[in-house]
């Protein structure tokens, strides 16, 4: 079991954003988390990644409880994420952005950097090489020296995924990776996510593009007003009355 949450509750004042959500993700799965706007999806991501500490419930990663663990420690343990609103270092190059994602694996210290020791130089070269490999993987090698701010929107999305992969995560959380992409870019993203799974990455994604979700996820969880209303394979979710009601509302 890669990830297991049990009865997770997250409140903000009088609002219960996530209400007793239990989830299990097996090794190598691509799992979708869907629901209308405001359903609690990103809040649930924040609980998993240590941005928020849940009011109730627990989170386990690879058999270890990580509930309330600081975000930087969770990254070091092997969970990485992207964000609904892209969070790149806009005035750094694509290569530098990816290298920034490798900080948890760095062995060189401040003195190494100040005195430019052999260890620092060797690590710098290794990081640049690894960054170029990841940029090639996401189709951005030719843009490695381009400032992130100058990249097209779809390229920025791919760069954020490359940076998330830089730490070698076991679990990758993608928050609306297809947002703002055209149909061709979305189709490329779908194939890319499949490629990641083939490389041994387990993936949990929030996405509003139902064609992408239904075409790639083996298991789907559906939230509505913070509550888990359905869970199962795509064909079950598509025909679930509670899911249809959550998206379309009741008739009459």
Please outline what is shown here.
The chain is an alpha/beta fold.
SSE topology sketch:
Blueprint: E1 3-12, E2 15-25, E3 30-34, H1 41-48, E4 56-61, E5 64-65, H2 71-77, E6 79-81, H3 94-100, H4 110-115, H5 118-137, H6 153-165, E7 171-175, H7 183-198, E8 202-206, H8 210-216, E9 219-224, E10 227-232, H9 234-238, H10 241-248
Parallel strand pairs: 3-8, 3-9, 6-7, 7-8
Antiparallel strand pairs: 1-2, 1-4, 4-5, 9-10
Helix pairs in contact: 3-5, 3-6, 5-6
General description of the model:
With 252 residues, the protein is an alpha/beta fold. It folds into two domains: 3-78 and 169-248, Rossmann fold (3-Layer(aba) Sandwich); 90-152, no CATH class. The protein contains ten helices and ten strands. Helix 3 (94-100) crosses helix 5. The chain is globular. The termini are far apart.
Q: How much of the sequence is in beta strands? A: 15-25%
CATH H-tier superfamily of the largest domain: P-loop containing nucleotide triphosphate hydrolases
The largest sheet, given as strand count, sense and whether it forms a barrel, is:
6 strands, mixed
Radius of gyration using CA atoms only: 19 Å
Helix content: 25-40%
Count of all domains: 2
Main attributes?
Rossmann fold; 2 domains; four-stranded antiparallel β-sheet
